[in-house]
Task: inverse folding
């Protein structure tokens, strides 16, 4: 089957190493994962995220519908505010994680994962049937790219008429980008300060507008970054990857996402009763961060064992070398008694058992050294 | 992206992009090819076989890892591992810099060299193999 292409495909094919990512032809790296990772931690990088899902939900019933579908609470959002959330099946399993932005009292912009685009939109439509909401899938006519790193503000300001430095964390703003209508949101998937930039009326079959903005941002200093560094950056920041760290068999409490689950909001939400019941009967497992203290790199699917190496506790859901830290880190699940920070454990790396311990994972790095909270 | 790969004459090669150099004393040196290191890029971790262990022809003797990927290192020949390149433990990037000389991985005393060589390619055949891989 032919791979789906994004607006930025022409650039990737010339400059990058293309892989099949969930059916999309995407660059895994251009110059090298380590170098691109470092550019985002120290300067500024740009990622093509046109493959992600984008839906506009409009109508007098939109707030009620959204609050029924997602676990977080949009009723307290200010105009142009945004929030991170998950949405769950009736049994509490996570359908996807997503960000919603309030564009007007009757209009919300929803951004979600590439691999779940069709599934999510079908779920939106199914659940919206009884509400006055109209849903439009804009994934192929709004282009999207992420500009990330401590120099993101000055870089995006070179291509926008409006000053983006004033946009608060997790908020959305309407902007003019290189003469095009667009939005910027103060969000990302790297742990760093930065923006996700959206270009409106940019259909996939005429990608010129999107490519012009991409090239302008590259000319302004943003280093093109592929999926490889996107993954190593988000892992260091302790951000979940849907399909690996969270999925339909994970409930949000196990995944340390209690903070996005608002049990007390008016009207409840899909999955609430199942999640409450799971909490009452005791969670079987919990997500932990793992740092390797021996020699080896943890990878997806590797076994987590207790200190003696005799009892298998669970599996690594995401792992790799943390380029900023210089050692292997991972996310995984273990029974609750093993989740305390400092608990020693082993990871089976091929035939060997490698020393590891539980560490704080959200993020893995020191927030005074890396990430958007540090002083620059 | 099309790339040029260094493929020296006089070595034997596997389909999995390992090389073998036969030395005068009948022992062999093994490593990975320029194609292998360029495909992995940024090698950040190397796992070496134990000295004294028995390698099997096309059996796994170690691993190379980039930030994102893990690649098994297979032994092109059967035999006893005599020596390993411990420098790679602290400086895995040596393989990216020089995969044929400084980036050697292990020295092996082969148990059936003539038999194993029948399964390996010469430089010319390996060049064709690599050209096919890239398309």
Result:
């Amino acid at each position: 089957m032919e791979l789906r292409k994004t607006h930025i495909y022409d650039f990737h094919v010339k400059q990058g190493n293309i892989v099949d990512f969930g059916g999309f032809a995407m660059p895994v790296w251009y110059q090298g994962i380590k170098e691109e990772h470092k550019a985002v931690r120290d300067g500024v990088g740009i990622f093509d995220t046109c493959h992600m899902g984008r839906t506009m939900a409009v109508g007098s019933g939109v707030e009620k519908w959204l609050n029924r579908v997602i676990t977080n609470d949009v009723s307290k959002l200010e105009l142009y505010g945004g929030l991170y959330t998950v949405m769950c099946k009736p049994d509490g399993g996570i359908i996807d994680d997503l960000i919603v932005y309030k564009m007007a009292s009757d209009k919300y912009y929803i951004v979600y994962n590439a691999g779940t685009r069709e599934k999510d939109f079908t779920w939106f439509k199914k659940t919206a049937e009884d509400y006055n909401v109209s849903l439009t899938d804009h994934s192929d006519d709004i282009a999207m790219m992420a500009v990330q790193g401590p120099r993101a503000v000055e870089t995006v300001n070179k291509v926008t008429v409006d000053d983006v430095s004033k946009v608060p964390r997790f908020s959305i703003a309407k902007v003019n980008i290189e003469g095009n209508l667009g939005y910027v949101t103060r969000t990302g998937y790297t742990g760093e300060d930065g923006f996700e930039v959206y270009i409106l009326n940019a259909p996939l079959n005429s990608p010129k507008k999107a490519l012009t903005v991409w090239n302008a941002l590259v000319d302004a200093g943003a280093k093109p970054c592929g999926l490889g560094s996107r993954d190593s950056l988000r892992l260091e920041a302790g951000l979940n990857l849907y399909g690996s760290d969270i999925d339909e068999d994970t409930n949000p409490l196990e995944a340390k996402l209690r903070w996005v689950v608002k049990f007390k909001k008016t009207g409840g939400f899909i999955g609430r009763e199942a999640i409450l019941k799971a909490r009452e009967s005791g969670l079987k497992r919990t997500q932990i961060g793992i740092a390797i203290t021996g020699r080896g790199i943890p990878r997806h699917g590797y076994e987590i064992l207790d200190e003696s190496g005799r009892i298998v506790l669970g599996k690594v859901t995401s792992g790799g070398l943390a380029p900023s830290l210089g050692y292997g880190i991972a996310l995984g699940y273990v029974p609750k008694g093993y989740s305390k920070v400092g608990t020693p454990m082993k990871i089976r790396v091929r035939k060997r058992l490698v020393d590891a311990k539980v560490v704080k994972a959200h993020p893995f790095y020191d927030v005074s050294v890396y990430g958007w909270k540090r002083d620059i | 992206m099309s790339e040029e790969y260094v493929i020296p004459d006089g070595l034997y090669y596997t389909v999995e992009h390992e090389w073998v150099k036969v030395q005068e004393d009948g022992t062999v040196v093994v490593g990975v090819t320029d194609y292998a290191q360029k495909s992995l890029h940024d090698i950040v971790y190397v796992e070496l076989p134990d000295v004294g262990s028995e390698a099997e022809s096309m059996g796994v003797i170690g691993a190379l890892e980039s930030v994102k990927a893990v690649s098994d290192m297979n032994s092109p020949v059967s035999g006893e591992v005599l020596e390993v390149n411990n420098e790679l433990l602290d400086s895995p990037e040596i393989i990216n810099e020089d995969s044929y000389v400084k980036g050697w991985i292990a020295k092996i005393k082969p148990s059936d060299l003539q038999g194993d060589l029948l399964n390996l390619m010469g430089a010319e055949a390996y060049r064709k193999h690599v050209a096919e891989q890239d398309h």
Observations:
- Residues 284-359 of chain A form a domain with the Elongation Factor Tu (Ef-tu); domain 3 fold (CATH 2.40.30.110).
